[in-house]
Structures are given as structure tokens and as C-alpha cells.
């Protein structure tokens, strides 16, 4: 393989990567995907090919201290696998693009400066995303780097949806609802004409349920509303984030509890949600397997919030024809899907239990007023498409 596009998703403790071979050809495909885990601790690199065969699974005796060393380790492996190959471009997932970056953008030093100003709006993700870009620019200075934003897809929302009802002089041009998980929703919208053509142009609620969880209301394939708001803390209950919470409770943490800003930030981003309620785990699989009362309560709250938001999204859309589950929990937990659908049965949802247990693409009965689907998301392919487009190559399709 001579040419390939590299997709990177840099986190605080991991660097995920995906190689798309021959992206200039219609139907470009994944050649390998993997992850370097344990940045700052005991690192491990693992990767599989398109058929799921293990290409590497190696632990290191010395620490990989930061994103630069992580990328160096990944790059060395890529160079050994794709000897003589050439990286055409690197696509990066970036959580926040603000109002200025409403489409994928080739990164320059000025773009990086703009994105650094958004770090306070996404402190859990943006610093790692930008560190990954900086590392790639240093390691591959002649290769174009393309930033793909999770906020861009939601810029089609009506102005009223994007408002935050604080004094306008305080809000300025920055304090508004942005919405996130846009690359996932964009992929789902792009694949509906093929996977679920009957709802492709209809009113659809997409539930991206994972450690980070949100919902998006789609009309004709465009975002109308999203449960995420100004930051990725709002909306649904998540693994370690609370979702919707009374602002007065935050004020109380400062005024009544005397907690510092850093402490409250840590609570909100790392200690709340499923972990906070259960005191056991942020992993839904652990909670479903536990008999502990607090674990059951955490699951109950997750389902309650999801069903509540489905009702809200249905109201925003003025009706709904389709419901799509995606992401880690949405794609892999028949139990959570069943409970959410049962709580939303008033909308006319009728679940096919056998299809749901098999993780079939369509999990509603023929008589269901709303068709319900399980569609795996593919943010990496979305990023590869955008990167290929920015480079003037033919966009790969599934």
C-alpha cells in the first residue's frame, strides 16, 4: 500500500488511530485500526486489520509520558507495517470548533491559536485533541492535518434552539448551545438512505449512548436539537458526567460547601453520572451485572433520563418516525434498549424482543408506529471522508 489517510482521536490517556487505504478511490476502506493505551503509565499498543485479525498487541516496559511520545510510538509501528507508504493527510477529531469552525479545516498555527481559546468550553477533551494535532504537525511537518469538529453538524439548528437564557451582554457571541457528538450524528444521517431508507428524510431521534451520551433530533438529515448544550455536561446521564442539573446545585457546591473551581470541575467531569450514583463503576456492563441497590438506581436513572429526552425531542420535531440507537451502550445492550423503548411505548413503539436480543438492524415490529434501529456509528469514516475532501480526493463511501 503506497498511500493512506490516517485518522487520529487523541484522548488524555489514549491515542486511537485508523488507517484508510487508497482514500482517493471510491469505496476507500479501513486497512487497520488500533489504540495506544496507558499514556503516562504503562503503555500498550494494539491493532487489528479490517477482518479483525490481530496485527500487534504489545506492552512497553517504559512509560509513554505524553501525546508526542504516544504518536511517535504509533508512527513507528505504522512505518513498519506500511514500509514505503505515504501518509496523504491526517484527520483529527476535535470536540469543539466554536462558532468560527463550522466545517472541517486544514490546521495552521492560526487555527491552533483559535482552538486553544475554546479549551475552557471542553476541558475534558479539547486539550488532548489539540495535543494530538501538535504532535502530528511536528512529527509529519509536510503532511496536511485536518481538524473535524463535533460541533459543526449542529450549526443547522434554529437560533432559538441555540439560545442560553442569560443576559445578552454576558452571553456575547460565545455563550450558547453548541451540541456535540456531531461526527457520529453526521455519519448516522449519511447512512440512513442505505440502512433505513424509509426514515432517511423523516423525523428521527438518534440516541448516541456510551460513556458519553446524548441525543439528536434529525429532520431531513439535519440537526434540529441536541441534548448537549454549552458544554458536554448537559442532557443525559453519562458515565462520569451528570447531564442536566439545576444550576443552583452548582452554586451550592461553591457557596454552601466551599469547594474550589478545580474541585467542582473534577466532580462534574470525572466523578458524577453513573459512577457518582452507583459508587461502583461508570461502565454500564458492570452496573447491569451488579445486584447492589445503588447500581440498580444508576441504571434506572440512566433509562429515566433517556426516556424523558426522547419525549422532549419528539415534541421539538412535532412527531417522530424513527429512533436509532448507536455507540457503545446503544449498539451492544439489548437490556438498556428494551427498557428505554418500554418507557417510550406511549409514542407507539413496539419492540421485537428477539430482534433486539440479536442486535438486528431493525428491532421494532412491523406494527410499530415508530421504527427502531440499531446502527453502528463510524466517526472515523466520517473524518476520513472529510480529510479526503479537504485534500481534493474522491470521498470514500461505505
How is this structure best described in words?
This protein has 398 residues and is an alpha/beta fold. It has two domains: 3-156 and 379-390, ATPase, nucleotide binding domain (Nucleotidyltransferase, domain 5, 2-Layer Sandwich), CATH 3.30.420; 197-374, Nucleotidyltransferase, domain 5. 37% of the residues lie in helices and 20% in strands. The protein is built from 15 helices and 13 strands. The protein has helices at 67-81, 109-116, 126-139, 159-162, 168-171, 182-195, 247-255, 261-271, 273-278, 284-288, 293-317, 327-332, 334-343, 353-357, 379-390; strands spanning 3-10, 14-21, 29-37, 44-49, 54-59, 86-94, 105-106, 145-149, 203-209, 213-219, 222-226, 322-326, 371-374. The strands form two sheets. It has an eight-stranded mixed β-sheet, sandwiched between helices. Strands 11-10-9-12-13 form a five-stranded mixed β-sheet, sandwiched between helices. A hairpin with a 6-residue loop joins strand 3 (29-37) and strand 4 (44-49). Helix 1 packs across helix 3. The model has no long low-confidence stretch (mean pLDDT 92).
Amino acid at each position: 500500500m503506497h498511500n493512506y489517510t490516517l485518522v487520529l482521536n487523541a484522548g488524555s490517556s489514549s491515542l486511537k488511530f485508523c488507517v484508510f487505504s487508497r482514500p482517493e478511490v471510491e469505496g476507500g476502506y479501513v486497512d487497520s485500526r488500533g489504540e495506544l493505551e496507558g499514556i503516562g503509565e504503562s503503555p500498550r499498543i494494539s491493532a487489528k486489520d479490517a477482518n479483525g485479525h490481530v496485527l500487534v498487541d504489545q506492552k512497553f516496559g517504559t512509560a509513554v509520558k505524553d501525546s508526542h511520545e504516544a504518536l511517535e510510538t504509533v508512527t513507528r509501528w505504522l512505518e513498519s507495517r506500511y514500509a514505503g507508504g505515504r501518509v496523504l493527510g491526517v484527520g483529527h477529531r476535535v470536540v469543539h470548533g466554536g462558532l468560527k469552525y463550522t466545517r472541517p479545516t486544514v490546521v495552521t498555527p492560526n487555527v491552533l491559536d483559535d482552538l486553544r481559546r475554546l479549551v475552557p468550553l471542553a476541558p475534558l477533551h479539547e486539550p488532548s485533541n489539540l495535543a494530538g494535532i501538535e504532535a502530528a504537525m511536528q512529527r509529519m511537518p509536510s503532511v496536511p492535518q485536518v481538524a473535524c469538529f463535533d460541533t459543526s453538524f449542529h450549526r443547522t439548528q434554529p437560533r432559538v434552539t441555540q439560545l442560553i437564557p442569560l443576559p445578552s451582554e454576558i452571553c456575547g457571541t460565545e455563550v450558547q448551545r453548541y451540541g456535540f457528538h456531531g461526527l457520529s450524528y453526521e455519519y448516522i444521517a449519511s447512512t440512513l438512505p442505505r440502512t433505513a431508507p424509509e426514515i432517511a428524510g423523516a423525523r428521527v431521534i438518534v440516541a448516541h449512548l456510551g460513556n458519553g451520551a446524548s441525543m439528536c433530533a434529525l429532520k431531513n438529515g439535519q440537526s434540529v436539537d441536541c441534548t448537549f448544550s454549552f458544554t458536554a455536561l448537559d442532557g443525559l446521564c453519562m458515565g462520569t458526567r451528570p447531564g442536566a442539573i439545576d444550576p443552583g446545585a452548582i452554586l451550592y457546591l461553591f457557596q454552601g460547601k466551599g469547594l474550589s473551581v478545580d474541585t467542582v470541575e473534577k466532580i462534574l467531569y470525572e466523578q458524577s453520572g453513573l459512577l457518582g450514583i452507583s459508587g461502583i463503576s461508570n461502565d454500564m456492563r458492570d452496573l447491569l451485572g451488579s445486584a447492589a441497590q445503588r447500581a440498580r438506581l444508576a441504571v434506572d436513572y440512566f433509562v429515566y433520563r433517556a426516556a424523558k429526552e426522547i419525549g422532549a425531542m419528539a415534541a421539538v420535531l412535532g412527531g417522530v418516525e424513527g429512533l436509532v440507537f448507536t455507540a457503545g451502550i446503544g449498539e451492544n445492550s439489548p437490556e438498556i434498549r428494551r427498557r428505554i423503548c418500554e418507557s417510550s411505548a406511549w409514542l407507539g413503539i413496539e419492540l421485537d424482543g428477539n430482534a433486539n436480543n440479536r442486535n438486528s438492524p431493525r428491532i421494532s415490529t412491523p406494527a410499530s408506529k415508530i421504527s427502531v434501529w440499531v446502527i453502528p456509528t463510524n466517526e472515523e469514516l466520517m473524518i476520513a471522508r472529510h480529510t479526503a475532501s479537504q485534500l481534493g480526493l474522491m470521498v470514500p463511501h461505505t
